[in-house]
Amino acid sequence: MADANVRIPAEARDRLAEVAAAEHLSLRAYLARLAETVLTPAERAERAEQARQQLQAWNGYDHRHHRHRSPRRRARPPPGAGRAPVTGLHVVLDDTAMVAAGRGNLLASRLIHRAHTEPGWYLYAPACALVEADRERPGTAAHLAALPAVTVLELDLPAAMAVATDTTWAQAHTRYAASPTPDRPDGAVVATVDPSRWKGEPVRVIDLTP
């Protein structure tokens, strides 16, 4: 593969080099890997169409037939959340949002489709919440896991330790997934159709209630 010279500001080069070194990669290897994760406009359009077809087959949603209405955000940022800038919007679906999507909730479906269409939107489905949603509405887990823009979060050891102290695994895993991390210092927003269950919790909420 032939190399190409690209001129960027020295500050940007040094920052990228520092990130690459932290991952034990050369700057060249890091940039090559980074390029593989970025979708071209054609690839994003293809993925959006794939999501539209899957959503239409799953719950009948087709964004071309519905007028746009944004979901409502509620609650303040969690106390102590970092102030560093975060690129994009990170959204964790709780089990009620997953079930609602399967039942054709327009806001939930629009949120899922937007994550496939627009850069900077990231959707997460905690495994415990996915199990609970599938119990409520069989087939939900398979449909959500098949969507390219939805990242299923496994129950790793730190998550398991957090969940073990709670009586509701689905809600506990969702809350843990929305907590601030080094990659997301401001945490993530929880999408739900039951915002009352998150009252008093240290999370921000997107209300998907019709």
Characterization of the model:
The chain is of the alpha/beta class. Helices cover 46% and strands 12% of the residues. The chain is built from 9 helices and 6 strands, in the order H-H-H-E-E-H-H-E-H-H-E-H-H-E-E. The chain has helices spanning 10-22, 27-37, 41-59, 95-102, 106-117, 127-136, 140-145, 157-164, 169-178, and strands spanning 72-74, 89-93, 121-126, 150-153, 189-192, 204-207. The chain has a 6-stranded mixed sheet with strand order 1-6-5-2-3-4. Helix 4 packs across helix 6 (127-136).
Outline:
The protein has 210 residues and is of the alpha/beta class. It has helices spanning 10-22, 27-37, 41-59, 95-102, 106-117, 127-136, 140-145, 157-164, 169-178; strands at residues 72-74, 89-93, 121-126, 150-153, 189-192, 204-207.
Which helices and strands occur, and which strands form pairs?
Layout: H1 10-22, H2 27-37, H3 41-59, E1 72-74, E2 89-93, H4 95-102, H5 106-117, E3 121-126, H6 127-136, H7 140-145, E4 150-153, H8 157-164, H9 169-178, E5 189-192, E6 204-207
Parallel strand pairs: 2-3, 2-5, 3-4, 5-6
Antiparallel strand pairs: 1-6
